[in-house]
Every structure is written in structure tokens, then in C-alpha cells.
Design a protein that fits this description.
Number of helices: 7
Number of strands: 2
Structural class: mainly alpha
Strand content: under 5%
Helix content: 55-70%
Distance between the termini: 39 Å
Largest sheet: 2 strands, antiparallel
Order of helices and strands: EEHHHHHHH
Shape: elongated
Length: 173
Amino acid sequence: EGLLEVRRGPGGGYFGRRPDAAGLERALAAYMRSEPASWEEALDMTSLLFIELCGAATRCENRVLLDELRLFAREAAECDTVNRLGELEERFQDLLFRMVDRPLFELLTRVTLRVAQGHADGPRAGGAFGVEVWVSGRRRIIDAILRHDEELARFEANRSNRRVLQAWLQQAP
């Protein structure tokens, strides 16, 4: 796990070491895989974290990042294929993480999202909903963030997540 360092020779031994982000991510992911958690539980966690992330992004005052968000909104609006949704969603969340700059929050979100996506019976990005649903949901979230309306950003993020899950559940056998 990268938490111990071994030093040989006189004065050697085992010494504690501050874990890096990659080590923490591996340890958290291993823990989540070892416990009997369903993809639904992991998806609930990512959904809650995403809602908080969108709300926190409304407090960003960095003009460069806000302009980048505007550019991203235009690019996302032009998306017309499910195959691009995964890449666009990852870029969107990366941008939100930079706007918020909360490392622990990012770590928890990334790990729980990977766990949810790693379950064989869980939903796949784009598989349960159309491109239009994703684009319109993200557009509403981005508009709320750009208006610095935290309550609306949280509402739209929650609504967007519910629509995706409902669409997936309707397709489930």
C-alpha cells in the first residue's frame, strides 16, 4: 500500500510514509471491492458526490476555468454519438474538479465511480440514455454553474442523475 518504507543497515527498520494519491486510491478501491457493496451503492455515492461537486463549482471565480466551461458547453452541445459520452463526461468532471480543488473529494468520487462502472451488472455510460438527455442535462448544470446558482446546480445535477438511472432501470431485464 506504500505506507511503509524499509531501510536496511544500522538505524534501519520500518518507517511510516505519507501515502500519495495513487496509493490512497488503490487502497480505497481495494477496500470497496473487498466489502460486499453493490453497484447501486457505489452509484449512489458518486451521484451524491457529483451533486456536491456541481454545487461547489458555482463558487469558482477563476475566469479562465469559467471560460473553459463555456467552451466545453459548446463542444458538448455538438455531441451526436454515444461513443463520445464517456470521454466528454470525464473531461467535464475533470474541469469541475479543477474549479473546486478539493483533492479528497476528487479521490472519493473517482474511486466510487470506477467501482460502480466495474460491476458487470451495472449501467454503462450512454447505454441507458440518449445523447440528447446527456447534453441537455449537462447544459442545464453548466448554465446554473455559470450563473453561480448553487441551489439550481444541485437540483439539475440530481435531476440529471435520476433520469439516467430511470432510463437504465427501464432497460434492465
